[in-house]
Write a structure and sequence with these properties.
8% strand, Beta-lactamase, 6 strands, 48% helix, three-stranded antiparallel beta sheet, mainly alpha, 12 helices, 2 domains
Length: 265
Amino acid sequence: MSHTVPDRDVPARDAPNLNAVVEEIAEEMRKRTDRGEVATYIPELARVDAGAFGMVVIDADGNVAAGGDSDVPFSIQSISKVFTLTLALGKAGDRLWRRVGREPSGSPFNSIVQLERECGIPRNPFINAGAIAVTDLILSGHQPREALGEILRFMQFLADDTTITIDNAVAASEQRTGFRNAALANYMKSFGVLENPVDFTLGVYFHHCAISMTCRQLAAAGRFLAHLGRNPATGMSVVTPERARRINAIMLTCGHYDGSGEFAY
């Protein structure tokens, strides 16, 4: 888990206390036995250590509080959808919303039921169908390798870390077993929602979900969303304040799929 905290909530003078809190949380999590289950629908993910837990908080002044397995890389999977949404909005602006909606789905992340009712238009950009449609927009006019390179460079830029790579073993595992995603993509293609060959779009989608990052890198990459679209480390604007607020709004209402209402509550 990664998170960023604006300076108004955690002043720089409180950084040592913040570090102690993060370390305490990490230690508490290390001792817990109710670890849940790792994802098995992608075989490579079934090999992930269920006991691992990492947490990083970075404040506006760049103070870093880290705990647990915060420097262990993992494939970020659906977290990548936040960044591809940001990239797609930079390319197409509000034209993106002709392909995908902004409403909570109320259905599992990989459900096809809603697509059938709504003529192939995904409910939001974070369910799998919506993220595939966003990926298709990024791909348009490019070869898959070019589009994937653009996404990876964007992640490296946001985190200010060129060592971020793709876990090719995870990507290959997803491609071998991603039958549900293939069904979603083909269904959207039949309604003209996807412009590119389905195999091309899915290839880029599987690979950007397999980008491998640490909690520390993710916290750095997401800082612009906590600071009105600006990266406080560089002072550079990534998106406008209005767009940052809107991305955050969709994350709140849709980011936990059919559990988003409970999370918001």
